[in-house]
Amino acid sequence: xxxxxxxxxxxxxxxxxxxxxxxxxxxxxxxxAAAQVKLPVMLMASxxxxxxxxxxxxxxxxxxxxxxYPIDIIAHLDHCTDPELLLTCAREGFDSVMYDGxxxxxxxxxxxxxxxxxxxxxxxxxIEGELGIIAGEExxxxxxxxxxxxxxxxxxxxxxxxxxxxxxxxGNQHGFYKGEPKLxxxxxxxxxxxxxxxxxxxxxxxxxxxxxxxAIRMGICKVNVGTEIRAAYARGILDYAGQHADDADVRKFxxxxxxxxxxxxxxxxxxxxxxxxxx
Length: 279
Ligand code: 13P
Hints:
Layout: H1 5-12, E1 16-20, H2 24-37, E2 41-45, H3 47-53, H4 55-68, E3 73-80, H5 83-91, E4 96-99, H6 106-122, E5 126-131, E6 136-138, E7 141-143, H7 151-161, E8 165-168, H8 185-194, E9 199-201, H9 209-218, E10 220-225, H10 227-243, H11 250-272
Parallel strand pairs: 1-2, 1-10, 2-3, 3-4, 4-5, 5-8, 8-9, 9-10
Antiparallel strand pairs: 6-7
Helix pairs in contact: 2-11, 3-4, 5-6, 9-11, 10-11
This protein binds 1,3-dihydroxyacetonephosphate (13P).
């Protein structure tokens, strides 16, 4: 099985950025941003994005970029609630997948995540699980409220399921935050002390860079970002079209869009280095 890149990240106190993508241009822009800071990166398909590309095309595109760049570029399936789709992605070339059983009763989450972990590992694929509820909307998973990850269950969940990483709910939310995000650093500290598997922070959009960097120094080794990339993409299209309505040079248009996405991803990448002087 491929070595878990999050273990190296945890040891060296950086985080791997995991970005939701829906187009090849986002993939290229994010790979460019990761290459600038020399960090590995995960390109993530939501369930609908995996179906939109087809799993094998998504994985092949990521692997093509991986071969062309001097950094590791990893294909990851995000928040999958469908075991069949998850296993299809694992068989068709994804390096890493996430099963999200966070909305099911604890024992069901343990059982299904554990069964999928065994199957993924036999295919050489890494798997992330989730415990607690992250407020907001991400693909099929929606919640108006957060339920923080219970430290009394986290160690047991990791041990029983055999997952390679755990997504935690510590005040992070999916989508744009209403008001200031308030990460529960005391809870994170407790979880870092208990959890043997690397920890993942979802809902990266809008968390202040200094908080992301602090969470990384405490032990977070993967940070997911989606909404802000989509927003940069959409704003880029509107801005370019507004100024160049008659210009049909597609490569100029795409180059502009890629630069907008690269700039946005690049701001997060700087935080993923985990340095103290990030604002
Ligand atoms: P944001 O869209 O809030 O950045 O969250 C993305 C995410 O966590 C995907 O799993």
